[in-house]
Prior knowledge:
With 497 residues, the chain is of the alpha+beta class. It has helices at residues 12-24, 41-45, 64-74, 90-98, 108-115, 117-126, 142-152, 175-193, 250-266, 298-305, 309-317, 397-409, 420-427, 430-433, 441-445, 448-453, 456-475, 487-496, and strands at residues 5-8, 28-34, 48-53, 78-80, 102-103, 156-160, 170-172, 198-202, 208-216, 222-234, 237-243, 271-279, 285-291, 334-341, 343-344, 350-351, 354-355, 358-360, 367-371, 378-379, 386-394, 412-414.
Amino acid sequence: xxxxxxxxxxxxxxxxxxxxxxxxxxxxxxxxxxxxxxxxxxxxxxxxxxxxxxxxxxxxxxxxxxxxxxxxxxxxxxxxxxxxxxxxxxxxxxxxxxxxxxxxxxxxxxxxxxxxxxxxxxxxxxxxxxxxxxxxxxxxxxxxxxxxxxxxxxxxxxxxxxxxxxxxxxxxxxxxxxxxxxxxxxxxxxxxxxxxxxxxxxxxxxxxxxxxxxxxxxxxxxxxxxxxxxxxxxxxxxxxxxxxxxxxxxxxxxxxxxxxxxxxxxxxxxxxxxxxxxxxxxxxxxxxxxxxxxxxxxxxxxxxxxxxxxxxxxxxxxxxxxxxxxxxxxxxxxxxxxxxxxxxxxxxxxxxxxxxxxxxxxxxxxxxxxxxxxxxxxxxxxxxxxxxxxxxxxxxxxxxxxxxxxxxxxxxxxxxxxxxxxxxxxxxxxxxxxxxxxxxxxxxxxxxxxxxxxxxxxxxxxxxxxxxxxxxxxxxxxxxxxxxxxxxxxxxxxxxx
Length: 497
Ligand code: ADP
């Protein structure tokens, strides 16, 4: 192994996750941090830390030149980008390559080809991989958009070519809505990505989101590590992911995973990547996009396969062959992850900020938690409000659901509004248990009245939490914790019975 020191161009849970694997591989780590992260867990956990700039991401975690200067100054051999920020920015990766530093991810050329929705879709079309009816190339005028929309039939979906995070996405129900949706999709795409190209495709009714984890080395070996189902979303963003997807027959799984492997191979892809598909009600599958980086939900794949994806990424970046052949990948049981966000489920999932007054996460034999914040830490408006990922493994889906529910109900988090109750509502919903889900599950089933009906204990718990938060804000004398055996804990446990 020639890599001795890695700079992690990220923050939060994923920076900590990467640091953990680096330590296990005896690789030194360099954290970068912004003004507000001087004391952050990732800054403290790394062997070295480097102040990168002011709090806004454009001046810190997104600042390409500063990150490369930091790598040079600290003598890092490689940069791991995590997810988000510069992870899928081909211009950044080109700068890294030109600086003679290894990038723990694909080559800039592969990102340009597969990370861009238009060129990835062109490649997929040439490989005869099924795609949602629509256009592959961006549409530039309202007239041409109208023509395509009429041809494929409403509802249609406008999507940003450079898209991500649901930005620039607009569902259009009828011709009358088209002009204003086109305008707003383009302007949102421009402001989010500096690229206003937009394309259009059929809006599928209540689809399911299935994605395939691939690994590819520089010698041309490409394997997959199975699928993840990520149909539980709010605002087109995932909050609960699992593997395997019980929707897939062995034959369908083989078809989808082989399309993913083919796309990666033909695109000259290296490193870890995820190929995303949608499934319609008839279980026809359609290629959606490729994410050319480590995915937030990668732990469910790690729990099922026992493979450390970050370790594989580092080995691949270092020119090593894959540690496994396809036939050596063993899948065990079922894993489910829920993302705990600082957000208000009762107010359109609006992000919540503030100091985390008390934080007592659960632990247990089949539980993994990847978290980027600590008690006393602050959730700011500068970055993604994800607090933690809680993952459970079970011998089957039912057991994984039970273990995650039990663990989540012991999760104590005060100070910021959070979606723990929403996650519990999902996990205890009969339709979720019966695997009758789709990407509109929350939109179609979640309402405040529903929350009021389903376990009332959670509401009481929320009220107690709010009171604790308030008193902590007034006292501000340090973290407070619910006493062992307190009413709050008892209520949470009651709910499980
Ligand atoms: P982004 O890159 O902005 O995250 P994606 O293309 O990955 O966008 O899609 C995110 C989510 O949007 C999907 O998981 C799905 O819920 C929804 N979506 C995307 N395309 C379609 C479509 N054609 N029909 C219905 N829903 C879609």
